[in-house]
């Protein structure tokens, strides 16, 4: 891509081990469980750190994402919501 923004180039240049994936969800949510399975699989394959945050435990997350859960953030920026595509997440983490 010839016209890539500096922010995108910087994010794409990070190695997977320097990334952080955050899954925002809630207990007893079947979409959240499915999303966690994808996040866990991709992150474990690539050696990427990941975490789960409960939207019920954080008022700010609740206000921001309630209608979108599960939400996946990559390095703090929203990557996707509702359904997580394994290939798209892998590409976001590796740049390929």
UniProtKB/TrEMBL annotation:
SUPFAM superfamilies: Thioredoxin-like. It comes from the Bacteria. Pfam families: Glrx-like. Gene3D superfamilies: Glutaredoxin (3.40.30.10). This is NrdH-redoxin. The lineage of its organism: Bacteria, Bacillati, Actinomycetota, Actinomycetes, Kitasatosporales.
């Amino acid at each position: 891509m010839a016209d890539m923004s500096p922010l995108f180039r910087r994010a794409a240049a990070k190695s997977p081990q320097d990334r952080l994936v955050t899954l925002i969800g809630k207990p007893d949510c079947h979409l959240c469980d499915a999303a966690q399975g994808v996040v866990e699989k991709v992150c474990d394959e690539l050696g990427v750190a990941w975490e789960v945050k409960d939207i019920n435990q954080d008022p700010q997350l609740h206000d921001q994402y309630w209608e979108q859960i599960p939400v996946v953030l990559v390095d703090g920026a929203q990557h996707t919501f509702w359904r997580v595509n394994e290939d798209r997440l892998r590409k976001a983490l590796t740049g390929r």
